[in-house]
Amino acid sequence: MKTLAYLAGATVLAAAFSAPAFAQSEIAAGANATGITEVNEQMRDVEDAVRDDFDRSSDAYRFGNPDQRQGTFGSVALTYAGRTGNNENQDFSLSGRISNNQGAFSQSVGILLEYGEDDDGDTDTEKTYVIYDGLYNINDRFYAFALGRLATDGLAGDFEADPDDQEGRLKRDAFLGVGPGYRIINNDTTAWRVQAGVGVRYTKKVDTLDDDPDLYTSDTEVGYILSSRFYHRISDTFFLTNDTDYLTSDSNDTATNELGLNFKMSEALATRVSYKTEYVSDRAIRTDNTLGVSLVYGF
Predict the structure, then answer these.
(1) What whole-number distance in Å separates Cα of residue 194 and Cα of residue 174?
(2) Considering the chain, what is the average pLDDT of its residues?
């Protein structure tokens, strides 16, 4: 499919440059004691941030259902750090994702667990996150989507763990949204898709000011989602994207817009310039603006 070839080219524009630039090198003996390893890890954090910035400019479903791995697959990762000596604490994280692609239908479920203890041996982190993403392509133009998120905080309401940061703390925060999507423009150089849906958000938070002996108050509200994804290839070395999202509910209105300019300046050099605007209706300063510049040079 010709449009998929252009999509692959746009993705390569963002990803291919990262291969030589992000290549890892061996760290010499003694690097830990001299602090070289710590600096190297900070360098990797910068590289990861740049890679993520480029990845955001790619939309896998811009031209419809892309060529992708079929069947069920997934991954699991965990980290643990236990410290003794000047600091007595530990941190543990476990993440996993399982995906299933069957023809026009693709979906994935992800989970993240975080646990930590402070220097006194008291638990200071106990959180769980679950996310869901599903998409069904009805034809080359129409599709349906579903989004889900659940976050829990095991320490919300535990005044022994953190008594100074409890009021308003979320014990549970869940969201589920569904709706249709439509690709308005879908040709070799320009793609524009929009989607709209309805969602339900449920929250349970600590409320010490309420007379309810249960200590928690819960709220369920309906929200409406409107999103736009625009892509235009100006030349083989330059394309632009504009991503817009709007969510409205009884609590507030939230809107974000990010314009991205992506350049392939040479075979080894790529640049992305983005400008993001975020609007939240119930903040004192409602609008935040962020200018981002990412540069990848490989040799």
Answers:
(1) 24
(2) 82
